[in-house]
């Protein structure tokens, strides 16, 4: 057995790490000079440490074990205690969103009608499982429209860059769909399983989240950076050959029993087109909406809002320009110069695509205007920076069904898919899935 891993993001790196620990031969090819893909940190000359990608990580069991394996446990940096507070815009001002079912009933954020709908959910029977049911339809059916408008919608836009009217419940939150089928009531299922007992520990690394991929890559024996795979072919014995473009020019690497695609679906599709045209078409159809992150720094004295939380999300019904902002300086105060605050504002996604395509200057100006309005800010920003993704987060809408089916079928051809469009969009999801696939390959190698 020998595996060619195409893509050096967190999925490809994690797979390589566990294959190496099991003694299974592999080669990992990464087109970029730096590892990590979207897990990228940048120390700006002005004194800001920015995350160009996930701003924080949920500390899952798999991530915690990986960090221990990499001797990075002492580099873990916990989010500040105030990050437990999450704000949502309602009636033109930011209000704390209830964090659990009990507080949903006692907090004044939702109306009495919405609270009554929550109580009724305990007695509402399960509906037949529909693989095409959307997130919005599921929550509207079980919890009512107000929960969808002011909790589900902003969460999906801010975390998944998505539209709950398009995302599928069975793909985005399969555990919730399963709880309904098993317990009748989602809330009863959460209580019995303990899954609604609180948030996971939120962390980053002291030098930035990119410390993780950099540390893995430095310890891999068969990691090749600045080397892109331009084509794949198959020999008569069934093994694969990858065509490479790297520092040495064009070359071919034959003899791989398996291919691991750790690439965005749109990047994997052209490689599959010759050998597996149907799978290529399914992957090419996966939707990646455009999105930008606008980083805005102000003097603390210029901002009247207390910023005592993780950040604030903007429901679509409030008619805002941006999907919301993370209060970076509140979560990790040491990442900004003393006496300043830093907002990381997200523009775009499936519900805000028009704004995502605007020029940089227009985005910066619109973000500053909206921040000034809702946070009581006086004066211009001390500093702003914009990073744009023409294709951001894969959407688990109806197109993902065919893509997942194609990925499943490709396993019979010894082609595995381990990127976030297959594993789930979170870093812990990618680590968990890649580790699982490494174990599958290890067991196959021992047969």
Automatic annotation (TrEMBL):
Pathway: Porphyrin-containing compound metabolism; protoheme biosynthesis. Gene3D superfamilies: FAD/NAD(P)-binding domain, protoporphyrinogen ix oxidase, domain 3, Protoporphyrinogen oxidase, mitochondrial, domain 2. The keyword Cytoplasm applies. It comes from the Bacteria. Its cofactor is FAD. GO terms for molecular function: oxygen-dependent protoporphyrinogen oxidase activity. InterPro entries: Amino_oxidase, FAD/NAD-bd_sf, Protoporphyrinogen_oxidase, Zeta_carotene_desat/Oxidored. Residues 10-439 form the Amine oxidase domain. It is found in: Cytoplasm. Keywords: Cytoplasm, FAD, Flavoprotein, Heme biosynthesis, Oxidoreductase. Its EC number is 1.3.3.15. The keyword Oxidoreductase applies. It catalyses: coproporphyrinogen III + 3 O2 = coproporphyrin III + 3 H2O2. Involved in coproporphyrin-dependent heme b biosynthesis. Catalyzes the oxidation of coproporphyrinogen III to coproporphyrin III. NCBIfam families: proto_IX_ox. Belongs to the protoporphyrinogen/coproporphyrinogen oxidase family. Coproporphyrinogen III oxidase subfamily. This is Coproporphyrinogen III oxidase. The gene is hemG.
């Amino acid at each position: 057995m020998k595996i060619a891993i195409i893509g050096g993001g967190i999925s490809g790196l994690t797979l390589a790490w566990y294959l190496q620990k099991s003694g299974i031969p592999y080669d990992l090819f990464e087109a970029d000079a730096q590892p990590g893909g979207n897990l990228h940190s940048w120390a700006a000359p002005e004194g800001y440490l920015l995350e160009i990608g996930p701003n924080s990580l949920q500390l899952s069991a798999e991530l915690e074990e990986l960090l221990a394996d990499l001797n990075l446990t002492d580099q873990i940096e916990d989010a500040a205690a105030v990050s437990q507070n999450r704000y949502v815009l309602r009636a033109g001002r930011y209000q704390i969103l209830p964090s659990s079912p009990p507080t949903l009933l006692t907090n004044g954020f939702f109306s009495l009608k919405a609270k009554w709908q929550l109580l009724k959910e305990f007695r509402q029977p399960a509906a037949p499982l529909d693989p095409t049911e959307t997130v919005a339809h599921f929550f509207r059916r079980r919890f009512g429209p107000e929960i969808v408008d002011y909790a589900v919608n902003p969460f999906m836009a801010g975390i998944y860059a998505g539209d709950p009217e398009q995302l599928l419940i069975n793909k985005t939150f399969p555990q919730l769909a399963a709880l309904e089928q098993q317990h009748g009531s989602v809330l009863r299922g959460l209580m019995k399983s303990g899954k609604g007992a609180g948030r996971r520990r939120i962390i980053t690394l002291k030098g930035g989240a990119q410390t993780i991929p950099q540390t893995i890559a430095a310890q891999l024996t068969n990691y090749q950076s600045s080397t892109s795979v331009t084509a794949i072919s198959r020999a008569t014995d069934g093994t694969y050959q990858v065509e490479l473009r790297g520092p040495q020019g064009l070359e071919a690497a034959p003899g791989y029993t398996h291919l691991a695609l750790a690439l965005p679906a749109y990047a994997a599709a052209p490689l599959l087109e010759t050998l597996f045209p149907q799978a290529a078409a399914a992957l090419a159809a996966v939707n990646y909406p455009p999105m930008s992150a606008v980083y805005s720094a102000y003097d603390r004295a210029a901002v009247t809002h207390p910023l005592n939380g993780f950040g604030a999300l903007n429901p679509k019904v409030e008619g805002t320009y941006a999907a919301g902002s993370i209060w970076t300086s509140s979560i990790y105060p040491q990442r900004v110069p003393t006496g300043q605050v830093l907002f990381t504002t997200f523009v775009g996604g499936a519900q805000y695509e028009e704004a995502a395509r605007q020029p940089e200057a227009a985005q910066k100006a619109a973000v500053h205007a909206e921040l000034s309005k809702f946070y009581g800010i006086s004066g211009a920003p001390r500093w702003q920076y914009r990073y744009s993704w023409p294709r951001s987060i894969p959407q688990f809408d109806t197109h993902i069904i065919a893509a997942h089916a194609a990925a499943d079928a490709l396993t019979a051809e010894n082609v595995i898919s381990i990127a976030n469009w297959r594993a789930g969009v979170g870093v812990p999801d990618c680590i968990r899935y890649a580790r699982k696939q490494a174990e599958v390959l290890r067991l196959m190698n021992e047969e």
